[in-house]
Amino acid sequence: MLCKNYFTGTDGYCKVNIFITQLNSFLEFLTDMGITEIADPQRRRGETIQRKSLELEEIYTHWTDCTRCKLHQWRTNIVFGEGNPDAEVMFIGEGPGEEEDKQGRPFVGRAGQLLTLMLRAIGFEREDVFITNIVKCRPPKNREPEKDEVIACSPLLQKQIEIIDPELIVTLGKPAITALSGEKLSITKIRGRVMLIGGRKVLPTYHPAYLLRNPARKREAWEDLKTLRKLLGP
Ligand code: SF4
User: Fold this and answer.
1) Is 156 in the same domain as 176?
2) Residues near ligand 1 with C-beta < 6 Å?
C-alpha cells in the first residue's frame, strides 16, 4: 500500500501499514480463540427491544377479547399499557379512566398530563418508561377495581412485568401497591420506601389523580421521584 507523507512516522515506517498488520494479527488471535463475532451493545439492545415487543404483542393478542372479569361489559377499549418494552422503570396505576378508555392508552387524561410532567422533572419522557394499570378495563364511574377484577387481570400484569423485566416498579396509589404486595397498606405511611416484592424493587408513591385533588402532597411525591432517580443511578 502507498503511504502518504502524513501517515509516515519519524522512523520512516508507514503508520497505516503498521495498523493493518496489527489489526490482522488481532483478528487472527480472536479467530484462534473461537471468537467469530464482536459484541455490539447497540445491536443487542435493538434485538432485545424487538423481542420484548413481539412477546408483548403476543400476550395482547391473547387477551384482546378478554371477558375474565365483569369490567369487560363497560369498556370501549382495553388499555394494555405503553412505553419502552425494555424500560428500566415501570409505572403501575389503578385502572383506565374515561379518556383512557376512549383512546385505549394509559394516563392520557389530566392525571396523565401530570404524570408526564413528573417524569420530565426527573429527565424521562413517557417513551423511556412503561406505563400500565393493575386492571386493563375501565371500572364504572372510576371506582376502585374490586378484588376479583384485580385477581382476574393479574396474570396479564405479571406477564408484562416478566417480559419488560424492569429494574424498578413504581406503584401509583394504594390499589396498585395493594395488588402487588397482597397487603392493605397505608400509602401515606409507605410512600417513598423501597419494598422488595417477588424479588423486585417496588417504590410506592401517590397516584397523580390524588395529587390533583391534594396539591399539598406534591412535595412528598417530588421526594419519591428523587428517590427513584437515585435508585436508577446517573
Ligand atoms: S380488566 Fe383484565 S381481566 Fe377484566 S376483562 Fe379487562 S382485561 Fe380481562
Assistant:
1) yes
2) 63, 66-69, 71-72, 78, 135-137, 149, 152-153
